[in-house]
Amino acid sequence: MQANNIWLLLTNYEKLIDQLERIAQDARTPSSVLEKLSRLTDCQITASVMLNPSTPSHILEKELRMRPGVGGTDEEARIHICYNPALRLSTLKALIKKDPAPTVRAAAKRALAIRDQRGEERKKEERLRGQTCRTARLCQTTRYPSRARIPGSACRRRF
Hints:
mainly alpha
């Protein structure tokens, strides 16, 4: 093969990998396509699939079973999977208890803490929904201090 042909093949390969990575990152990508992309050997594409929140949990769990090693790409892949919100909570807790790699256990603990924090924020938002601004609180719709301190001008916005 000539050098020009090899250069052209490499350029096309890089473009193809970039396109597949964009598809793997898109949350609207169907799960069947994500499953096929997860079978590829390119680490950029598989990492994008593992971080995609639309990836079904059975694909993530299959990837966890396929990558049991300590160190290298296996460990890195399991860390990516920990942060995916589609991963079942029971699987995340099992990683905290049983994974052989300390970095994966630490990542799973951080991911669980992030989920707990988001859950607390959702609960707080649900409690605040339908309430009006109070004197000491900022109005979330205007991001300015509540006008309830000014006589005759009370903030009545609902959030």
